[in-house]
Amino acid sequence: MVYKVYWENAVQIIEPHDKGIADSIMANQQPRTWDVENVYSSDLCVDISDWSELYFEYIASLSRHRSLNQQTSLKFVNTSMHGVSNAPMTRAFDIFGLPPYIAVAAQQQPDPEFPTVKFPNPEEKGALDLAISTANECGAQYILAQDPDSDRFAAAEKGPDGKWIVFTGDQLGTLFASLTLERYKSSGTPLAKLAMVASTVSSKMIEAMAAAEGFKFVECLTGFKYIGNTALALEQEGYEVPFGYEEAIGYMFGSELRDKDGVAASVVFAEMAVALEREGKTAHSRLQELYNLYGFFKTSNSYFICTNSPTIDNIFARIRNYDGKGTTGKPSYPRTIAGLTVTSVRDLTIGYDTSNPPSYKPTLPLSSGHMIQFRAESPTGHTKITLTTRTSGTEPKIKYYLEGSGKNAQEVQALLPKVVAELSDEWMQAEQNGLGRS
Ligand SMILES: O=P(O)(O)O[C@H]1O[C@H](CO)[C@@H](O)[C@H]1O
Question: Using a 6 Å cutoff on CB, does residue 394 contact ligand 1?
């Protein structure tokens, strides 16, 4: 069973509460029998079964132009990926005044066998195949997808050549950040009050947007427990935090719900598509405009599979002492990759950040697994990359998050496969270490 644990601040628990709960579990290892009914009579137990209306009031608060939505001729296909989103999505579309979507019939209802997909994750290759054929049959312009527990969101757009453009989590995050910024500007509140949050492995395009526009951007560790808590801390400092995201297709809107929500993201995206269409634009064309404004950013994220912890530890130990001259207090990381010079290294496992002398302590908290972020640039300084490699907290994977940026899109795109090749062959020694690939 998968569940989330929230603290009384309505945000997922982090330290010290996670440790406190774990300690309590360890201190109570003997099974005890007790009357479950006692739970319901306790003052500590609050029945939240009628709170769903509040949730839909929250959804309604996110809509900006219901009447325009009612007039749109855009068609949306939606897949619930055999999960739970169909009922709330239907209601959310109605609340937003959007025309009913065309559901992917075979994936509309919950089915724990997930019979039509290899992996029930909209990010996986092929997961949107059925949605794409449904959309082609009915002439839809956009596909919306929620993952089975409906807290994450993916989208695709039919390109002018008829091919489907599946947006990455970062591209959607950038579109949402820009939409949030526009809305905030039109509210008249000074931009100095606005803050947005993203995990440190998400695109740095939001950082570039913040620098160009003058709002605050804060990064945090991966996972919505950190995004929600960072947003909460910023609010306590006096900021408004109407948006936060992580590249793993998780999006948070507004201050009432400090967690990712696939339904909210879907209707906000659909409403954005409606507004863009009235200007003769699409989500994809808007993204190209944003590249012109803030620079071109392209991600290439993937992972290696490794079930053997000692192998993983050895790989990271080697990266921390790449030329054999490292010491305990002063690691020695690779200095180049794919012809680029490494300009900074932030190691969130051992707590070492080359860009923060003289203490070399990172400003972000330490990660429970391995996590090292490299920034590197070309000899001209025109093309830059951020490369983070970390162990997954949920799967036997070494994940990597690579992003290139610069003015010359072709140069950036040509560089990424070379970085991945050196990461795989030299840094990870993927073949010698028997690492699997996605
Ligand atoms: O990378 P791990 O630790 O598996 O966590 C994953 O789980 C979350 C998404 O469901 C994201 O934070 C993603 O990165």
Answer: yes
